Amino acid sequence: MFTDTHCHLTMLDLTPYDGCLNKALDEARKAGVTKFMGISVDLDDYLALSKIASLHHDVGYSVGVHPCEDPSVMARATTEYLVELAQSDKVWALGETGLDYYHSQDFVKEQKDCFARHIHASKQVKKPVVVHTRSAKQDTLEIIRAEKSTHGILHCFTEDLDTAKAVLDCGYYISFSGIVSFKNAQDLRDVAKQVPLDRLLIETDSPYLAPVPYRGKSNEPKYVPHVAAALAALYGCSVEKLGKITSENFERLLKEA
């Protein structure tokens, strides 16, 4: 029923599960989660994620480099290498990539170049790109437009309505995390309820950003229904319907060329 479109499966706190990821995934399934996309932040994350995905029919993963990684790591992410890594059917997306000026503005050019290469690879393999943006919305939009990127997700959306409209106009889907449930996130909820239902996705971004009522705790995929609940309240529909719609949206995204 629910799809967690963005979870860092190699970074979860598995202490409650005796260190066993399988148990964590089983708990998520009991909560109604039927699909998981494990997200890479480092090029070598594919080594662990591919093993996880091979053991679980409902798990896929992305390949790519987070913009907060060291420039030497970003430099390894050539278009050709990304295309090579993305050949498996279990690779559902490229990323997460994008721009992050909040944590550092020391390597802006390297971030931009790496972002563009992810888009180039995305087009070649016809798989969506997962975009992270923080304190860099204008440059993020400029690159998406300049590279004519139309197949992607702006994940963990926290921006304003103008940004939402801009990425929607480019053909992107918008994914909301547990932040949309936070008490102090009314502005974000005001934006969220104006996103068309057919372009909406949900995620945990676990182990970060656990939704209410688990805010402040380590996040995990089994909490994604709480993100759905926060959005369902905005749209005036049931949690089950919101879960079904966002899961169908994700399936459609994966099939788009």
Structure, described:
There is one protein chain. The chain is an alpha/beta fold and 257 residues long. Helix content is 42%, strand content 17%. The chain is built from ten helices and eight strands. Strands 1-2-3-4-5-6-7-8 form an eight-stranded parallel sheet. Helix 5 (108-125) packs parallel to helix 6 (137-146). The longest helix has 18 residues, at 108-125. It is globular.
List strands and helices in order, with pairings.
Blueprint: E1 2-7, H1 21-30, E2 33-38, H2 45-55, E3 59-63, H3 71-76, H4 79-85, E4 91-100, H5 108-125, E5 129-134, H6 137-146, E6 152-154, H7 161-169, E7 173-176, H8 186-192, E8 200-202, H9 224-235, H10 239-255
Parallel strand pairs: 1-2, 2-3, 3-4, 4-5, 5-6, 6-7, 7-8
Helix pairs in contact: 4-5, 5-6, 9-10
Summarize the structure.
This protein has 257 residues and is α/β, with parallel strands linked by helices. It is built from 10 helices and 8 strands.
> What integer is the average pLDDT?
97
Structural class: alpha/beta
The gross shape turns out to be globular
Helix content: 40-55%
CA(first)-CA(last) distance = 24 Å
Computed over alpha carbons, the radius of gyration is 17 Å
**Helix count?**
10
The succession of helices and strands, N to C, reads EHEHEHHEHEHEHEHEHH
β-strand amount: 15-25%
Total E-strand runs? 8
Side by side, the strands of the main sheet go: 1-2-3-4-5-6-7-8
Low-confidence stretches: none
User: How is the biggest beta sheet arranged?
Assistant: 8 strands, parallel
